[in-house]
Design goal:
Helices cover 16% and strands 32% of the residues. By secondary structure, the chain is an alpha+beta fold. It has one domain. The longest helix has 9 residues.
């Protein structure tokens, strides 16, 4: 993967990890994937995402949706991530690609 990130089935193995939930969506003005960081703030950095246990996920989503209009994010939704060595790693390949970039690099001219 781009950015020195290696994807593997092992990375999505949740054994011996703390599974967390967080809110993501696409920023309305430019389509960039963003993560709810709390107190009405959204960030393109996964590391800044506010994450909670599964039991608190719906409350986190409600908080993310509570901002007054116009909302800065299109269709926010919950995703699963694992907390490994203090870093959040999305558990689905789709979310891993959204967070860390394409799985292939463009050919050089």
């Amino acid at each position: 993967m781009a950015h020195g990130h290696k994807a593997s089935a092992t990375m999505r193995d949740t054994s011996a990890t703390d599974v967390r939930r967080l809110v993501t969506g696409n920023r309305l003005r430019d389509g960039v994937p963003v993560y709810f960081a709390g107190i009405g703030r959204w960030s393109p950095a996964l590391a800044e995402a506010r994450h909670v246990a599964a039991a608190d996920a719906e409350a986190l989503l409600a908080e993310a949706l509570a901002a007054p209009p116009p909302h800065p994010v299109v269709a926010p939704y919950l995703i699963d991530a694992a907390l490994r060595d203090g870093r959040l790693i999305p558990l689905s390949l789709r979310e891993e690609i959204r967070a860390f970039g394409p799985t292939v690099r463009a050919a050089e001219p």
